[in-house]
Amino acid sequence: MRVFTLDAIKQIQDFQFLTDSSGYVLADGGQLYRFRGNHAEPVATPAGFTVTQFHFLDATHGAVAGNYRPAALPVQQGSVGVVALLPLVLVLLLRKSVGQQLRAALLSLLLLGGLLAGCGRGWQQYRTPDPAWEGVTQLSRSQLKQHSTHQYVGNKGQKSFIALTQTGGASWETRQIPSNFYVTALTAIGRNFLVGTYANPHESPSPLHADGDVWIYGQDSTFSPELARNVPARPYGLAVHRAVRGFSFSATGEQLFIFGSDRMPTLPPDEVSATAGNIYELPVSLRPPYRLLDVPDTVEVTSLAQADTGELWATLDNRKVRLSKGVLRYVPLPSRQLLRFTQGRWQPYALPQARSFGQVAFVANTGKGYLLSEAGQVLATADNGTTWQPISLRNIRRIKPWRRALTLQQGANQLLLVPDTGS
Question: Is beta strand 357-363 parallel, antiparallel or unpaired with respect to 368-373?
């Protein structure tokens, strides 16, 4: 095992190994560092936003993403959807003090809303429940398209950005994402970067809003020919209608998993917004067929990994969503549950060594996997999750497979690399 202590960094927020002794680190506060051995040097990133996510394809080609939020924003009293506005429109229509032209306009809005809600059900032909798998729906219509701006009123004044470099951070090409959602995930397919967003994960004067999208930057058409026409001013993307907590790839590398919250219904509905599911599975071509997988209840998926057997493993948040007085709120749960998708259904997985889990990961083509408990303990399997044994590591904050090895963050500023020791 190799240990790297980065004294220049007080608190690591995220890390990525590129070789067995070098890579990049994001410190709390949004400062990006390049590390080699025990030495870390800061990398200048665009000053217009705070970096919350980063991903590099190699030492020079990478991306950072995040948000700019003004120091003082007007307090938002909340937000309501179109469906919630309809009763309000009815009340206004009945008030004599409303002018005739305004009443006519409101009536038109109401009629339009009714038409949108009652018609256009052709989308149902594009979804089919999978009879072999509980809570799984097959989707057949392509969702890859150029999307318009997507804003959330509770984030008024906030902006989202991505910046790309091909020079290891010596220069950056910055683009504003056409959304004011929080940037919560970043990955790559080929040489294209995918940005995942979450409308509002925080309970505050602006209530929880579990919507999200995936925006795509790059023109690598290796997997998706459409992306040859991708332009930063109006990028391709996926309206996933659910908050994105992260990305994961299948054991074969052929499927992308987008995981996070359950759906956010829309008006008018479509096959994605009208179908329950915390996990959105797509080929790396981003073309159909797709699958939506629904985990029990409304708990968000926080990490997801696939074993070589094809079984999915997921960790859940320690809070669930509840609608209270018309506002979505979080309800705390006693632990972060571990689930295993086997024999066509999600099943809770219990271990005597730990009760609450923060991450699950598998190393492709090895049968090996790792669990990180909320207490910072690591458990390992060599048989795709049939048995798990604790390993002698403590105070672990984050785990990530790298090639056939395991990389970890220990404590505030230490990185570990545990090499593959064979079968």
Answer: antiparallel
